Amino acid sequence: MVQDMVSNKPISESMIIASVPSAVSDVCKPVLAELEANNFSQEDSFAVHLAIEEAFLNAVRHGNKMDPAKKIKIDYLINTDKVEISMTDDGSGFNPKAVPDPRCGENLYKSGGRGLFLIESYMDVVEFNESGNSVRMIKYKQKVSQSE
Amino acid sequence: MSPLKPRISVEYVENATIITFTDEKILEDNDIAALQESVMSIVEPAQHLNLIFDFGNVRFLSSAVLGLLIRISKKVYENDSNLLLCNINPKIYEIFKITRLTKVFDIYKDVEAAIVSLNQTE
């Protein structure tokens, strides 16, 4: 059996990024490249990509109130089993439990309010710090069945 | 202001106006704004349109696009028009399903199925 050319060494990076929507690609590109290098499935990459987009744009819009002078701190760790990403904005935070379910009642017809719900749907662990300006997200590598 | 990229193509088939999203990824605010401008220029001035949105090229989108679709659909229904979505790839369809937007939008397998449905309701 040919061994996959994957390093078992975890990748751990920190970066501080300008709080502008277009800067999300500075996070997505290196993370998605590492997921591919570590043989994460396309479904996993899709999920992580979506979570990064939604969390970053929430941080820019709601956390940092579209102030380009503010920053977003990103920490990520990727190994052969999981990817863990933390994002911290310069805002005063929010209460994630107070965000209404976008699937219920009139919320279903609102144009916003689905970002956090999608993050929670696609990631395995989603935790906020006490003040709510920092989110930690984990996705475990999808197990591929023997028959595939 | 940077020029808008072609975000949609428009085709008229039978009684339907088919709007195809040409980008593979629809993400950034500029993408959304350009899309909104392009689509609204077709939707706003017309009444009784049969609109079909073809997502065949789209491989990734964010919740901002879902918001855009909701905004467009409100304008569509105000103008007594119809809106059908089609050709949505399975990963993106999952987003519609998880958010229960499958209850809000009429979604069809492909353009042909959408046109058949329009013909049946007329």
Task: Please compute the radius of gyration of chain A using only Cα atoms.
Answer: 16 Å
Termini Cα gap of chain B? 43 Å
Structural class of chain B: alpha/beta
* Approximate helicity band of chain A: 25-40%
Q: What is the molecular shape of chain B? A: globular
Order of helices and strands of chain A: EHHEEHEE
Largest sheet of chain A: 5 strands, antiparallel
Query: pLDDT below 50 for ≥5 consecutive residues: which ranges of chain A?
Result: none
Numbering strands along the chain, what is their spatial order in the largest sheet of chain A?
Answer: 1-2-3-5-4
Distance between the termini of chain A: 16 Å
Helix content of chain B: 40-55%
Q: In CATH terms, what is the architecture of chain B?
A: 2-Layer Sandwich
Which second-level CATH architecture of chain A applies? 2-Layer Sandwich
At the first level of CATH, what is the class of chain A? Alpha Beta
Largest sheet of chain B: 5 strands, mixed
Q: Tell me what portion of residues of chain A adopts beta-strand conformation.
A: 15-25%
- CATH homolog superfamily of chain B: STAS domain
Number of helices, counting only DSSP H or I runs of 4 residues or more of chain A: 3
Radius of gyration of chain B: 14 Å
Largest interface: A-B, 22 and 22 residues
Short description, anyone?
With about 150 residues, chain A is an alpha+beta fold.
Commentary on this structure:
The complex is a heterodimer of chains A (148) and B (122). With 148 residues, chain A is an alpha+beta fold. Chain A has a single domain (11-140), classed as Heat Shock Protein 90 (2-Layer Sandwich). Chain A is built from three helices and five strands. Chain A has helices at residues 24-37, 42-63, 115-122, and strands at residues 11-18, 71-78, 82-89, 125-128, 134-140. In chain A, strands 1-2-3-5-4 form a five-stranded antiparallel sheet, with helices on one face. In chain A, helix 1 runs antiparallel to helix 2 (42-63) and helix 2 (42-63) packs antiparallel against helix 3. Chain A is globular. The two termini of chain A are 16 Å apart. The mean pLDDT of chain A is 92. By secondary structure, chain B is α/β, with parallel strands linked by helices. Chain B has a single domain (8-121), classed as STAS domain (Transcription Regulator spoIIAA). Chain B has helices at 29-43, 63-78, 90-98, 111-121; strands at residues 8-13, 16-21, 25-26, 50-54, 60-61, 82-86, 106-108. In chain B, helix 1 packs parallel to helix 2 (63-78). Chain B starts with 7 loop residues before the first strand and ends with a helix. The model of chain B has no long low-confidence stretch (mean pLDDT 92). The A-B interface holds A 21-22, 24, 43, 46, 49-50, 53-54, 57, 102-103, 108-112, 114-115, 117-118, 121 and B 27-30, 60, 62-64, 66-68, 70-71, 74, 91, 95, 98-101, 103-104.
